[in-house]
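Hey, does this match?
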Amino acid sequence: MKRKIVVQKEIIWGQIPCEDINVDLEKISQNIISKLIGYDFEDRNYYRDIKLDFQKDNDKINKYFDNEFRKQKWPSLVPINSIGNVHVFLEGTYKRNHIDPYNYSESPNMSALIIIKGSGELVIEHSDYKQENSFSQFSFNQGDYFIFNSDLNYFTSKNTNREQYTQLLINNYELI
């Protein structure tokens, strides 16, 4: 008897150990906000994604994730791109995933959603033929992360804090 797993969906979550890996979320926040000011959003950019350059603190997060995957003997995570999202009062994400409908072959395998600022709820859908409307719901706070298959639809709740924007860092990965 032989076996081949053809579809595997997973959600991995936790808290970034900022002090242990020497990550400053405020620097990432400043990078997102500085890119947002005067950012020229394309017509196809329905989600108001802000393309980010990899910077030192983001790179440390990527290395942390890859090291944790290797400890579990999972495939390596190779960063493809990094984007930021900023949600003002009463704004959240639309339902989305990270598959590029214009270029499937260049779409990522896994995506990481990292909460840089704010709090709220994250809903990740993982329906299949037996569980048509299956989803998982998570509360999130600053420093939390969620790694999941890039083809899973997700959305965040509206930002209910008038005093602070919700800032998300989204890193997309290829599995090797």
